[in-house]
């Protein structure tokens, strides 16, 4: 899918661990891990909002369109 | 009625059906040994509605007694002949279809009870129930055609001028036509069940999609 999840990049910039993000966003570590590795079909707006709030970023910082991505 | 109770009822029904099938099998096996006749009936129609269409005919055939009374042909057969073999196959096939269908329905209600109605197993089971329901009237037609062949091979004519004829053969004025009488209700229910199975398959795909959205 050409939509690439850059959650790991933003987490590294903010120096935030998966466990900490999980507790702030209210999504399980397992699901966040799946999201980070791009193994999900979609993301709900309220989840995206919570992640953006926790990482102090924009949706575009987390999701990227890359046509060459398999 | 909740799924737990329905599952329990279906378990009892399945057990009861199995028991009845076993009893039917025992009766079928024991009847010829005890000299008891096995009775089979089919609908018959007169080709022409007339006063002189016989209302009751009796004729002995090789291993059976055949009687026509007011639109019904009754055959009482004794011994382990071809008629008995057909009767046995009917018990095995019809009983097998009914028991299999009930078992699949029971398994489906178990999944509903466990809160997983939209699973690959439930859609597959519903599809098989539909196939079994469609197979039942088909078996009824095959069975009746075989019966008709057996009866016709043994009795022609019944009383000198009245013949039994197959459903698609040309009948004379005094002839009686054998009628195929499959239960089409099963076929309609089977088609509906296939539609429901497809709906459950789509529901399963939607559930999987939903689970993969965070």
From TrEMBL, chain A:
Domain HTH cro/C1-type: 7-62
Coiled coil: none
Gene Ontology terms for molecular function: DNA binding
Species annotation: Saccharospirillum salsuginis
Gene3D superfamilies xrefs: lambda repressor-like DNA-binding domains
Protein name: Transcriptional regulator
Pfam annotation, one family: HTH_26
From TrEMBL, chain B:
Membrane keyword on record: yes
This protein's record includes keyword Transmembrane: yes
Residue ranges crossing the lipid bilayer per the database entry: 12-34, 84-105, 126-142, 184-206
Native source organism of the sequence: Saccharospirillum salsuginis
Protein name stated in the entry: DUF2975 domain-containing protein
Keywords: Membrane, Transmembrane, Transmembrane helix
Domain of life: Bacteria
């Amino acid at each position: 899918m050409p939509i690439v999840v850059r959650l790991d990049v933003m987490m590294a910039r903010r120096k935030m661990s998966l466990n900490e993000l999980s507790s702030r966003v209210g999504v399980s570590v397992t699901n966040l891990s799946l999201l980070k590795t791009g193994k999900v079909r979609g993301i709900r707006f309220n989840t995206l909002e919570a992640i953006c709030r926790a990482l102090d970023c924009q949706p575009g910082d987390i999701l990227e369109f890359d046509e060459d991505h398999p | 009625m909740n799924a737990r109770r329905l599952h329990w009822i279906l378990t009892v029904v399945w057990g009861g059906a199995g028991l009845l099938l076993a009893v039917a099998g025992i009766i079928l096996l024991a009847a010829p040994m005890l000299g008891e006749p096995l009775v089979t009936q089919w609908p018959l129609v007169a080709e022409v509605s007339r006063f002189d269409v016989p209302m009751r005919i009796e004729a002995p055939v090789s291993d059976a007694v055949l009687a026509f009374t007011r639109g019904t042909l009754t055959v009482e057969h004794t011994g382990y002949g071809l008629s008995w073999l057909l009767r046995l196959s009917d018990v095995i096939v019809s009983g097998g279809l009914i028991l299999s269908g009930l078992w699949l329905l029971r398994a489906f209600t178990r999944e509903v009870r466990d809160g997983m109605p939209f699973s690959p197993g439930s859609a597959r089971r519903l599809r098989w129930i539909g196939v079994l329901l469609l197979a039942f009237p088909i078996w009824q037609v095959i069975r009746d055609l075989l019966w008709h062949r057996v009866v016709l091979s043994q009795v022609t004519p019944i009383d000198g001028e009245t013949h039994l004829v197959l459903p698609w053969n040309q009948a004379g004025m005094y002839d009686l036509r054998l009628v195929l009488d499959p239960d089409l209700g099963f076929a309609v229910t089977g088609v509906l069940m296939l539609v429901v199975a497809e709906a459950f398959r789509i529901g399963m795909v939607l559930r999987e999609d939903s689970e993969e959205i965070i």
